[in-house]
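Q: Could you predict the 3D structure of ABC transporter permease?
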Amino acid sequence: MTTVENPPKSAGKHAAQTAASDRVKGERRLGFYLTLPSYIVMILVTAYPLGYALVLSLYNYRLTDPAGRTFVGLQNYLVILTDPVWWNDFVTTALITLVTVAVELVLGFWFAFVMLRIIRGRGPLRTAILIPYGIVTVVSAFIWRYAFAIDSGFINQWLNLGAFDWFGDRWSAIFVICLSEIWKTTPFISLLLLAGLVQVPEDMQEAAKVDGATARQRLFKITLPSMKAAIMVALLFRTLDAWRIFDNPFVMTNGANNTETISFLAYRQNVTLVNLGMGSAVSVLLFLSVVAIAFVFVKGFKTDLSQVRGD
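A: Sure. Here are the predicted structure tokens for ABC transporter permease:
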């Protein structure tokens, strides 16, 4: 009489893991095939202007003198990187980015926590929070410009500042620019963080309460680590957007009083001075800096972005 031995549990567990892994790979492969046409279109749309800008950056080329177009190699980049104007604009852009993103992260988390916990009036509250984000950036910039204007603005009247010129000084102008950015884009971060808060395991929170953990301990030991992927996505998207800021400085100060950003510098070279060679070089440097920021964020957080999807 022969006896049939049951397969070891480890073999069954391994088979289940293999099947799950194959299923995930199949879903990812299907997703790639479904999105491949859009990838091709995006590459075709973006590759030509990016490549053309790269080519133009290697020339001394002005629209006012098309016949005088000459190849200068990397000379444009050397001129830009050794010019104090570039580094001043770089510092201004970095300052605005650091201030706005840091404040928006704190406020966005607070708004996300309120939207998650509130029960009555949740819909109207979320709608009210999202109103600033729905306003076009240029329109928002004009609103803040008139609010802080010397003659027609109401901020000076509220604060009893008389005829204080907010845009006549570098630091006060940057303060208004940052304030307008924070007001408009905090709802964007709050939405992304709300998606991360929803995925925080409630049973872990309850277990921590039973064990006597304080609210601060639960925040830094459970909530924030569980939201690491959502925080990284929010910071990455918002940082890249803030690094390319153009509308607010253009509308409020037109780059005066050392409030010019890198995007504004590219605009001034390309449009105002019609120096396509130098302007294209600034645009390429801006693109490379955006890629560098994205690389640092992805590698620095070392986060699996599939956690955002709940995989």
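Q: Anything worth pointing out?
A: The first strand starts at residue 59 and ends at 62.
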